[in-house]
Amino acid sequence: MAYVHSMEIKEFDTIIVGSGLAGLTAAYHASKNGSVAIITKSQLDISNSYYAQGGIAVVTDKDDSVESHIEDTLLAGRGLCDLDAVKILVTEGQTCVQELIDLGMQFDKEDGHFVLGLEGGHTHRRILHAGGDATGKGLTSFMLKKVQQQKNIQAFEYSTVVELLVSNHTCLGVQAFDFVSGKNIIFKSKATIIATGGLSRIYDRSTNPHTATGDGIALAYHAGARLSDIEFIQFHPSALYIPGEEAFLISEAVRGEGAWLLNPKGERFMQYIHPLAELAPRDVVAHAIYNELQFHQADFLYLSLKHLNPELIRKRFSTIYHTLLKYNIDITTDLLPISPAAHYMVGGIQTDLNGETNIEGLFACGEVASTGVMGANRLASNSLLECLVFGKRAAEKAMEKEVVPIDLPEINVIHVDPQNENIFLDTKNQIAALMSKKAGIVRSGVKLSEAIEELQIIKEQLPENIKEYNLLKIKHIADICFLICESAFIRTESRGGHIREDYPLEDPALCVHLIQQKDKKFKFQEIRN
Predict the structure, then answer these.
(1) In the chain, which residues fall in CATH 3.90.700.10?
(2) Do the strands 233-240 and 336-345 form a parallel or antiparallel pair, or are they unpaired?
(3) What is the rounded distance in angstroms from the CA atom of residue 174 to the CA atom of residue 163?
(4) Model confidence over 170-183: pLDDT tens digits?
């Protein structure tokens, strides 16, 4: 252990951990009333938000309504959405999007009207896009420019938070490791906002950047924060399948424009499974594809746009079109080989309606948070909206915090040993294969029990007091995967993004949040209706 006074200390009013849309939004609003630090383990523009193709769901059309958007969100959430949070998302979302437009954000228009997309689970066209299928890039880049214009925001790239500094159940800041200098740095603040994104890289096949391994959730859990509903992992139904290549995302909006899913025999099948066919909610589509793959003993099936207007498709999905040309696939004439891939964490760090956790001064927003909005299955394109709404709410609440006269705890200095890098990569791949096989789209009590046992063995092989970064990453990933498998084992039903082959039906008694907290027994919590 090292005493704090021997280390560099930086003080800010608000600390933001992560640089996706939620983190940038929080930083922008927090900067209106104080100094802000953004800490990100890569570059500012590397995040799930940046790669989001789909769009942002918000009511703008006269034939649409707030009530309809709320109803679609609740329906997709399979009974686990908190109504007050959903109402805030949909109503304040309109204001947040208008604020962006007023600041100069350009969404796609034709003849002076917004081009509105349709995606799975939505009953109206309400998806705004920027640059066709590059909305995440457009939004994140726009907010990044706004953040860089604020003189009281300082960014710390290539720095990773290794511990939340909590004393007397109050978060006093963070300990970070600077990859460039090799130094440990203490960041003190009145408020800390975790916006580290998701964890889908804990699976073999994922649409997420390599940085999405659940760091923020692990940090919050070890600090004593409550986690909610982390058994619900959303697998995107349509990710490109080419052996040896990354699982490139094929946007939900492609099916929104009329693309068909075809089994290995070239036959449509979704119309027999759900009234909305290819536009059914993601959990339904992913499960249906899984079943087709099992039935045909295949690794992939197809997405077809051949029957659609090629000029419209090339314009609307420019990024996808040009990316797939690199694989000699023309989406207007060829069948696209696709298979589900881990995409989005539906649960996360439990927060109140202002993004604050059960730890004083610690907030969470974006994919890392469980605000009550997503339920058991995220409605397509609600995620970017959640970043805007709850990123702003978290920042505004954080600004109200006062300095707490509590001494910082002693610090466990972290270093990097290059010899452990291969150990980390090997273990990470081992865990990813384990999670894909035993805690993927379809689960069972037997497989989950086996996964829990194997993860426990990995955890027990680690030293008790970890001072090396690669080993710390192994611990974080193993802990989070253990908690996911534990919560999936406890939830003896199938609901949304959690499917149990041994409990194929929803259980009305389990229409509750599942809460996990360090050193405490899990508990169920009622939905706020």
Answers:
(1) 239-340
(2) antiparallel
(3) 6
(4) 999 999 999 999 99
* Cα 341 to Cα 441: distance, rounded to the nearest angstrom: 9
456-491 pLDDT per residue, tens: 999 999 998 899 999 999 999 999 999 999 999 999
Contact between 474 and 427 under an 8 Å Cβ cutoff? The reply is yes
How confident is the model at residue 50, as a pLDDT? 58
Q: What is the 3-state secondary structure (H, E, C) of 250-277?
A: CCHHHHHCCCEEECCCCCECHHHCCCCH
* pLDDT value at residue 1: 45
Contact between residue 335 and residue 250 where contact means Cβ atoms under 8 Å apart: no
Q: Span 261-282, mean pLDDT?
A: 93
Taking a C-beta distance cutoff of 8 angstroms, is the pair 38, 189 a contact?
A: no
Look-up of token digits 């990024």: 319
> What's the CATH number for 418-518?
1.20.58.100
- Residue 274 predicted with pLDDT over 70: yes
CA–CA dist 15, 19 (Å, integer): 11
Q: What is the reported pLDDT for 77?
A: 96
Query: Residues of CATH 3.50.50.60 domain(s) within the chain?
Result: 4-232+346-398
Q: Which CATH number fits domain 4-232+346-398: 3.30.360.10, 3.40.50.720, 3.30.1120.10, 3.50.50.60?
A: 3.50.50.60
Residues with a catalytic annotation lie at 282
Q: Among 333, 307, 303, 329, which Cα is nearest to 239's?
A: 303
Q: What is the DSSP string of 373-397?
A: SSTTSPPTT-HHHHHHHHHHHHHHH
- 525 — phi, psi (to 5°)? -135, 135
pLDDT tens digits, 275-297: 999 988 888 999 999 999 999 99
CATH number for 239-340 (one of 3.30.2350.10, 3.90.1570.10, 3.90.700.10, 3.40.50.300): it is 3.90.700.10
Crossing angle for the helix pair 445-460 and 469-490, nearest 10 degrees? 160
Specify the range with the lowest mean pLDDT, choosing from 28-32, 158-162, 244-248, 301-305.
Answer: 244-248
Helix or strand holding residue 423 (H, E): helix 421-438
